[in-house]
């Protein structure tokens, strides 16, 4: 990051407010100690105070920007000498009302060079360190802000990395299951051309999703298209599949519906009266997915041990939606129930990408 970024000053209004507060405070003290007439002395010294303050404020900033320069040191020394000379002319050169209000002994002409230099240098340093302090505070503030931004960016990078890793694991788990079942179907001579075509389309879709760095959400209608393709590979003839509501402005995680459908097919038992449901409802403030299926005594997969799909589903919902997503599942006798509810945080869309324009609702339309 450029050094100039760390030297960015506070807004002018901040300087103005600080000077107003300081002058009100120091003015009140001077009026209490020396009377109302001392306000004119303070106003007369104001250009000198501002000059000392901003000379050192600028000097420290210039030091960090370009390093130590003899020209700057000489200029500061000449400024102090000029202040000593002008101050002497005003205070001791000729009698005047301004000098009478500043000098402690206005009626005597005794001049002590040592005391005069000490007093002027003390006055100079009083405002010099304030200018240096203001410049230092601005630099430290910019450093702290840059550090916070860096840590936030680093945290975001780690969060995106974790999301990407989990997304790859999520999709690869699905593609692995699908490939495993397709190989088994091919060995049994049940793999048709339409199944192979759907398999290739879903596989290509999954690879594209795994290649994404961010913005993992996809339009719901895209997910539904690939769900129809998955139904070709895993047909459930008795399935009651319905879609309610407007899908055009909804974005979801890739493979969300596909994973749910795949798990139903993997562990379900389907007959004419199996009562298998797959309902997707798009409401004004939420997306609801509800499934019911009879549990088979034996899994259709080569490896019967399951459960990791639901664990991954719950984990990825929590990571991408947080508390906006809830998942409930239970088994009563031989019926498995699953319900996922996702609240929309930003109006009609729950995603990290811009949605397409809202269309008319298609209430009660079927997917199959």
TrEMBL record:
The chain crosses the membrane at residues 12-32, 38-60, 72-91, 123-144. Keywords: Membrane, Transmembrane, Transmembrane helix. The keyword Transmembrane helix applies. This is Signal transduction histidine kinase internal region domain-containing protein.
